[in-house]
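chain and backbone:
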Amino acid sequence: MSHAGFVATQHLHEYAKIPFNEDDLSISYLPLAHIFEQCNFVFSLATGYAHGFYSGDPLKLLDDIATLKPTFFCSVPRILNRVHGKIIDGVNAAGGFKKWMFNKAVTDKTHNLLNKGVFTSSVYDKVVFKKVRDLFGGNLKYLITASAPISGEVLTFFKVALGIHVYEVYGQTECNGPATLTMAADPTAGHVGGLIPTTKIRLRDVVEMGYLATDNPPRGEI
């Protein structure tokens, strides 16, 4: 890993126009050998936000988050899937009017997000989704998911439940972490966005699979 490579990762939050400052706070729980957590620290060195460290027990991560109340959370799909499953199980157990209201809130906010680019609702955010925001401490402003694919359904759910854009990042250790990210102006899910300015990607033809860079859209091995 080069110093220049880590400096280049700064262009992710600059390109995404994420205005980190010394009032922001991140919870650190991913392994430091993980390039995702390394980038979290590099971002903070450049912008001055603080870190709180989890207790060391992954099963108590949500308790640690509720205590720390971070504004920035680096997540992986496994955690978001677990939280999403816990929420849906609770809604199904409640049943009746609560389940109906929850599903209506998700449907209405998803419609407004996809058609109007609106993340918030003065009614649903207070009545339906406050408990979801409280699971993340109640102060969350920025959430990035990376390291593995996440389903569009789960990603969109957290966008409407938290009332913020959830950035999906694609990359690898060999390129110092981030290579692409999704932008807040594009509310759709199921893709990993476009290149950050310091990255180049080449598509190599995989003829035996029928993937060609000359396809429309271009296809191949990255």
